[in-house]
Description:
Blueprint lengths: L1 H21 L7 H4 L13 H31 L1
Helix pairs in contact: 1-3
Subcellular location: Cell membrane; Membrane
Main location: membrane
Keywords: Cell membrane, Membrane, Protein transport, Translocation, Transmembrane, Transmembrane helix, Transport
Amino acid sequence: MTLFLRILLLVTSVLLVLLVLLHRAKGGGLSSLFGGGMQSSLAGSSVAEKNLDRVTLFVIALWVISIVGTGLLIKLNG
């Protein structure tokens, strides 16, 4: 079980990094310090962006569950 949770943690961590990098920059963050905040997003969110948000939230939930599960198993078995 611990091996499964560790593999799940590794896979979701990589997926989370990739999904966050796929998101469009909204401005106002660190990107605006380097000139990336010049664009304005006047258009609404597209269906693809909403689906990307949903997938990202699902992967975040799996990531948190794997962290909590791994921590509990280490605490109980350690």
